[in-house]
Amino acid sequence: MLLYGILFVLLTLSFVRNQWGIVETEWFYKHQLYAESLVFGRIVKAQHDGIFSSGMLPGWVGPVPESEEVTYWQYEVYQRDLPFETYEPYRSHPSLHTTSWVILDAISPLSKERNTPVFHLINGVMLACTLLLFVWLVARELGRAAGILVFLSILFSPWITVFSWNSWWVLWAYFVPFFLCWRLVCSGVPAMRRVALVIFGAALFKCLLTGYEYITTAYGMMLVPMAYYAVKDRWGRGAWAKRVFTAAGVSIVATLMSMMFLVTLNAAESGSFRTGVDHIVETVARRAYSSNTAKYTNFPGPKAQKMIESLEASTWETVVPYFGGVVYDFSEMLGPSFSWTKTPFGAVVLLALALTLATFLIARLRADRRAVALAAAVWWSFIASISWFVLFKAHSHVHYHINYIVWHLPFVMFVFAQLGYFLQGMTSNRPAPVITSP
Q: How far apart are CA 96 and CA 325, in angstroms?
């Protein structure tokens, strides 16, 4: 417990104040303020007009003075209790996570200036606890070396660090469905009804709390434990396929139900169900593969041009740059002379490939069901990560500044778990265990 207490402090200090200098200071404090300002705009609106006003949708208050930016103006209005006249809702999110911040603000005895860092502290603590649970599960299942490397992969990740405290992203919530599925499958092949109920609840939780951002990755991540235990415990192809298709089916149902809820919220704000339906259809098309670019040519400007380019770009030219993004860079922490430490995500993919090949070529690892199952989990995680880049190509083409985070949900962490298990297995004098079905 003492060890995990120390690890908790290390992560929390990094997530709340970038204590170890993992990322550049300005990037840490300004990353995704634009998105987070939706939360504070919503709090202001709820304070003045009630929690159910404007369909509980997040948004921005206005009008924004010409000398101000819409992002920073939301914080100003919130902290200084300034008057506002208009409210621009963000219609793409069910908003339950913003409602939780509204409630927390209402019951907080602290001043508005102090509430903001408290929100960030809560997010940082929740993420630290969540990722330490992930480390503990890995260490218990795969050994101490795997747990240590996974922890280090988290601590030194610039992308996890900059997302950690943000009140819009609530990154810890992305891992909740993963843990629910892990609990579901860790004790044996689960009954079909139980799979349906747990996966349905997990998918609905994801949609209602964190919206549809990275939804394909989140759903794929949720099923990583199923991929691992299906191989480790020899479920058989039939049992595996039935449970995966069941999980996919109930996830689609949960998504559609959450969209019905979102349409209802939009109708409460606009007075028309059609508004909500049209917005969902248009948003999905705009973020994926819509061929309708004419509407953007009517609004010339950098933003419209980016939208046109994202819709016209090929999947290949959109996805390839994501392999070149920097997964680790110690130059910020250790100085410019360590710029050689910049490591692309593609290197992590190559490491996973090398470890997987070694697993199947080295007899002692090939006979170890855990090693084989871990390889299956790694590549299922890989598919989950790149699914967002491929299926939501237009969004990925525009959002290179944030979408690298999906590599950590949870592909990168599982690769380091695989590395730790490989090193532990190759340095141990004991023969690899042959895991059989319980």
A: 32
